[in-house]
Amino acid sequence: MSFVPLNDLRRSLLEQGPSLAKAFARVVDSGWLVHGPEHAAFQHEMADYIGVDHALGVASGTDALELAMQALTPGGGGAVVTAANAGAYATVAARSAGFEVRYCDVDPVSHLLDPDALGAVLDDEGAVFAVVVTHLYGRVADVEAVRRVCAPRGVRVIEDCAQAIGAEIAAGRAGSLADVGTFSFYPTKNLGALGDGGAVTTNDPTIADRVTTLRQYGWRTKYRIAERSGRNSRLDELQAAVLRYRLPFVAEGNARRREIIARYEDAASERVLVLEARGAYHSGHLAVCETEDAADLAAHLARADVGSDVHYPVPDHRQEAYEAQYASLRLPVTERLVGRILSLPCFPELTEDEIERVCRALATY
Ligand SMILES: *Cc1c(COP(=O)(O)O)cnc(C)c1O
């Protein structure tokens, strides 16, 4: 019996190979390699899909976060608030741009930033200019509740949509619900490039203008630098062509992922709580479950030839690089989830037989 992998990129690559080769040939024939027609078209198609005025291609999801933060603070400096259980991407982006990071605890059911805990964090610490709310595992966070806490305090809201492309609620799609949205096209995301890529989405022309300038050396026009903190962060033509080909398949891929998660939810023994993903508010990016001892469940799955992983094992404020600064910080819910969460195989190309085997392993735990 073969191993059921957490993810397997080869399957979609094999299936899409000829179409991807055609997209690449189109780029080679065009003679454009950077910021050409594919990139321009992708920006339009992405903006349409998310339901915003502007989508801007950048080099990665982490760059998208950093550029979004910089676009909100023309003067530089200040602090951002985020959850500490979302892989530290917002932390890394903020630190790299010279911003401080404060942490807000998460909701015990959704594992997403808890809007009820946010007011105290914002009032306690001065100089917070933005909250980064991550749609973790693919589930759309309650952005409206976050905005209600932030707006009276003049704090802006960034949505990290790296795991949630295509997820939507009545108010709109992830990436259209706050001041600015950020996306990653890392190969394992629900919309993956054949390498790195990212995007920033917004309805705010000032933010769009600043990101456009910052992502290319701070240029206002060619060779004329208008912004001090500019750098080079571009999405190239080959990646843009891949993303244009794959964007129309996001919806069906997300639906298939949700179906797989629902199967796990139904099959799991009472010792395993599979986090639900039964609606368009979820992209189905990760099938995450909660259990008393995640390492023990991982060992049980491994004996059944089923892969698993942890997203994420170490909260930001307990990372070796930062922990000294946060020694006195307690985030009770975030800390309680450590050792209890486990991600199960979840990608659209899983076979029926593989899904069945994961279900059986979950049922017999
Ligand atoms: C993957 C991911 C990122 C970072 O994206 P990169 O393209 O790898 O830089 C940011 N935030 C979240 C929630 C992610 O899952």
Task: Write up what this structure looks like.
- It is a single chain.
- This protein is of the alpha/beta class and 365 residues long.
- Helices cover 38% and strands 15% of the residues.
- It is built from twelve helices and 14 strands.
- The chain has helices at residues 9-30, 37-50, 61-72, 89-96, 115-124, 143-150, 205-214, 237-246, 250-267, 294-303, 332-337, 352-363, and strands at residues 54-58, 79-83, 100-104, 128-134, 156-160, 168-169, 172-173, 180-184, 198-202, 219-221, 224-225, 273-274, 287-290, 341-344.
- Helix 3 (61-72) packs across helix 7 and helix 9 runs parallel beside helix 12.
- The longest helix is centred in the N-terminal third of the chain and has 22 residues, at 9-30.
- The two termini are 19 Å apart.
- The relative contact order is 0.16.
- Pyridoxal-5'-phosphate binds next to helix 3.
Overall average pLDDT: 97
Structural class: alpha/beta
Bound molecules: pyridoxal-5'-phosphate
Q: Count of helices? A: 12
